[in-house]
Amino acid sequence: MRDDPSVVALVVRAARSDQSAWFEIVDRYAPLVWSICNRYQLSSQDSEDVGQTVWLLLVEQLGNLREPAALPGWLAKTTAHECLRVVTAARKSERLGTRLDDAMQFVDDAVIEEEVVTAERNACLRAAFTELPARCQHLLAMLLADPPRPYAEISAMLDIPVGSIGPQRGRCLDRLRRSPELIALVAGDMGVAVPGGEPGA
Amino acid sequence: MRDDWDDEQLMAALREAMRAREAVPDWFIEAGQTAYAWHNIDAELAQLTYDSHHDADRAAVVRSEAASIRALTFTSAHLSIELEVTAGSLLGQIIPPRGGTVEAQTSAGASTTTPVDEIGCFSVVPIPDGPFRLRCRTTDGTDVLTGWITL
Exposed, middle or buried: residue A102 (CB in 10 Å: 0-12, 13-18, 19+)? Predict the structure, then answer.
């Protein structure tokens, strides 16, 4: 796992009572915690409890994380353990003698690692996107909408000729590729190429 | 990702990243933000040293009946806090016994304070909904905070 300097900085700042750093950590990694709750098919209520417990544990641990760069891995494992606890407790209270699905019986390091890599890539892409000029963000957001907005609508909204939407999209994507976040992501990719590699704990 | 990602691949990756963030409900984000309210509390931390549920986990292999009372013990250098959970109430005792107050702090940032009598007993009613922890301040000046509890 690459050492993401921005994650380390966020953890250090949050540990020193910088609330904006904490909000950024939550915004960045809530999708990771959420996706794991979904993998365990938790109800909204259970997801809320798991989410709260995970963030509260992190608040408690902020100053003690041995390796701040391993935060995403820590979050993913802690979330999976909490999900497993909730799922197991629910099974017991329903007195179901059934066994949990194999995928849910234990915390699978390889699955966690994959989720962490995906979450990191997504977080880098989102961070890079928010640093694009506003025009690029508007254009790409319209093209990324589901379904994508018709070129005629984009042309009217952004006041550019239809014919220049394609070239502008290309230039915006080039900017995105050259952003520090994406360059770091490409460089770090080599570090996660080993299948099942442990986060640098 | 690859250095040579073409525009379509980059757009697809960006779409996935945006979708992953949009899928997260606002209340889920807000709960995470709120948790920071409990940062930097200056109290001694008490660790969970006993949980009857853990024993029940093992017992359940041979005995399917669930225990109706859950017992928890938190221990710090200066005192222990023993808790018993029954339907609707949480009873506790501070060991060695002494008076003071117990504050139940919820993850949402709310707190309620109840007195601890001179033999160290207290009750928290109703049991907080969702994760909570207890902060015990005793008359001799000890200030202890338990880990987060979800019942």
Answer: exposed
Q: By residue range, what is the domain housing residue B57?
A: 42-146
Which of B14, B64, B148 lies nearest to residue A57, judging by beta carbons?
Answer: B148
Beta strands in B52-88 (DSSP E): 70-75, 80-86
- The model's pLDDT over B18-59, given as tens digits with 9 standing for 90+, comes to 999 999 999 999 999 988 987 877 778 888 899 887 765 544
pTM reported for the whole predicted model: 0.75
CATH number of the CATH domain containing B47? 2.60.40.10
Is the ipTM reported for this complex over the cut 0.95? no
- Sign of the dihedral through C-alpha A88, A89, A90, A94: positive
Tell me, yes or no, if A22 comes closer than 8 A to chain B by beta carbon. yes
Which B positions 84-113 lie with beta carbon below 8 A of chain A?
107
- Examine the domain organization and report whether B50 and B111 are in the same domain: yes
Q: What is the pLDDT of residues B73-117, one digit of tens each?
A: 999 888 999 999 888 889 999 999 999 999 999 877 788 999 999
Hey, is the C-beta of A148 within 8 angstroms of any chain B C-beta? no
Q: Look-up: residue for tokens 């640093």? A: A131
**Domain co-membership, B88 together with B32:** no
What is the least distance, in Å, from the CA of B53 to any CA of chain A?
Answer: 9
